[in-house]
Amino acid sequence: MSSKKLEQLLIDCIQENKESVYRLAFSYVKNQQDALDIVQESIRKSFTSVSALKNETVIKSWFFRIVVNTSLDFLRKNKRIQLVDDETMEMISPGTEDQYANLDLEKAMEELPNKYRVIVILRFFEDMKIEEISAVLNEKISTVKTRLYKALRLLKEQLSDEELEEVQ
């Protein structure tokens, strides 16, 4: 496939998934500006290496993998975990609706280790199949399934513990 066609496919992929890749980056860094920087850096990296892509059918998972790796690189370089600031929280939440029902889930998700949180986000918030997640994270399908199961179990335990605390 020609370089121009690959670049056009990449542009289409980026445009179709811009909100998803932003949310994915944000899930790692918890900061609007850093997430935007990660997305921008991921786009730069993808354009510099798009010609090496052998199979255009995997362009989406290939691009998501670049976003994941760029997010992890950012965290390694900065060695810090960002808390969500009020301004960012206002921008990502709808604002007009009460979100009390989601607060416990958000808190429980934040407490999950990155290797579990990213799988839950990709599976349930980005609606990816297990095989796609496997390709994005460059992990075996069995590893993804195991981590997803463990993440869901941890979330269930955290959420049921919080319900018990509310009753007492």
Ordered list of secondary-structure elements with their pairings:
Layout: H1 3-16, H2 18-29, H3 32-49, H4 59-78, H5 86-92, H6 100-111, H7 114-125, H8 130-137, H9 141-167
Helix pairs in contact: 2-3, 2-4, 2-7, 3-4, 4-8, 6-9, 7-9, 8-9
Textual characterization of the structure:
This protein has 168 residues and is mainly α. It folds into two domains: 92 residues, Rna Polymerase Sigma Factor, Chain: A; 70 residues, Winged helix-like DNA-binding domain superfamily/Winged helix DNA-binding domain (Arc Repressor Mutant, subunit A, Orthogonal Bundle), CATH 1.10.10. It is built from nine helices and no strands. It starts with a helix and ends with a helix. About 5% of the residues have low confidence. Keywords: Sigma factor, Transcription, Transcription regulation. It comes from Falsibacillus pallidus. This is RNA polymerase sigma (SigV) subunit. One of its GO terms (molecular function) is sigma factor activity.
